[in-house]
Design brief:
The chain has helices at about 50-60, 80-85, 125-130, 130-140, 180-185, 190-200, 230-245, 270-285, 385-405, 410-420, 450-455; strands at about 35-40, 60-65, 70-75, 90, 145-150, 170, 215-220, 250, 260-265, 290-295, 320, 330-335, 350-355, 370-375, 380. By secondary structure, the chain is α/β, with parallel strands linked by helices. A hairpin with a 3-residue loop joins strand 14 (about 370-375) and strand 15 (about 380). The longest helix has 18 residues, at about 385-405. It has a 7-stranded parallel beta sheet, with helices on both faces. It comes from Kutzneria kofuensis. Belongs to the peptidase S8 family.
Amino acid sequence: MRRLLTLLTAAGAALVGLAPVASAAPEHHCDATGTTYTYVVLYTPGVPRFVADAELRLDCGSLVEYYPEIGVAVATSASPDFADRLGPYRAYSGRKDVPTSTLRSRSQESALAAVPAADRSAEQWDMDLIKAKQANKVNEGSRRVVVGVLDSGVDATHPEFAKAIDPADSAGCLTGKADPSPDAWKPTTSSHGTHVAGTIAAADDGNGVTGIAPNVRLAAVKVVSDDGFIFPEAAVCGFVWAGKHHFAVTNNSYFVDPGFYFCRNKPGDAVAYEAIRRAVAYATGRGVLTVAAAGNEAMDIANPTKDTVRAHPVDRNCATLPAGLPDVVSVTAVGYAGTKSSYSDWGKVDVTAPGGDGRQVPPAGSGPACPLSTLPGGAYGSMCGTSMASPHVVGVVALLASTHPWASPAQLRGLLRAEATPIACPAATPTCTGPAGDNTYYGHGLVDALAAVTR
């Protein structure tokens, strides 16, 4: 579906790694007076680490990590012309491209409302909508299934995760190099990852909330920085970590920064697009199904016309990452009424799930309009967004992986689609096209947790 980017530029640059790099540039003095940025750099997959290390040093950079399986290096440099030396189709820094006006946290998607830890399951209308409570009575998931939560960290001390978090499979990826120490993957400034994790696997213990697959294990993989950004190097690290640790599925409730779209035919953008495409493909090849939120821009992501985050021209060569990649399950959101949430993007869609909507208010006693889940510090609260819809899908995939232990990512995706409940387009809604079970708002339909454990 998506054309693969080559490393051959329009100027005819040679594919890196097929020849020694010692002659890549004349010797020069490195200007280290600029701001230090982190870059992703493309190589031919399989190029040895020492080759990448030597070239980066020659071009005034320092190697942070190298992933030879996919030919992606993570490097830092204070040289203002570091990317120019390597070429605009080989090196890119997301942080360097962030307008200063957007340096703010975007991880919180709605106001939080802390609630007591008493049994709140009656307020989980989202679980009723996808039949998760019925599914829990049949199968709560297998302990052999590991779900990767690529997010802002998960509070492992929360009572709901007493048996869920697997420290051995958790890591921090903010630098582009995996750090398995607990301090690297715990949440610091954001509740987002902990909320996502509760939807997937909060314990079925009669207190607080219950997740869709409360018996599976969770791996916290921190890719969201303290200021709320997810840069290409963190995403690459997260996907490769997931593949090496053979997770069954990962949840990705974010888009890669600094913009909403990356264009595979434009300098800089093309580097990030290809690096993340390779990382996702690597994870898929090692048995990981990648699930991602479609976005909250209320627009058609299959036909981009404007990047609402970063000012640059976009067209159909551009995609949001990771949701716009071929190997990724893209998820839209519905509210209490079961119709598309007002903020939810649409277009490239696999399935839909509850994300909440302030315009679809549940009746008294059924819970808040935004799904209720866990917050750091043993608390609970509500958030809205496709970020909340995506983990509902991941929870269902975790049940599918539990009941179909030998299923490949493609087979799990097929089962997810086949067992979803079709939803027809609303009447007189020109932006929704296609029949029930295959349209631009709901994809193949609303995910069904009960079907995942009974069919």
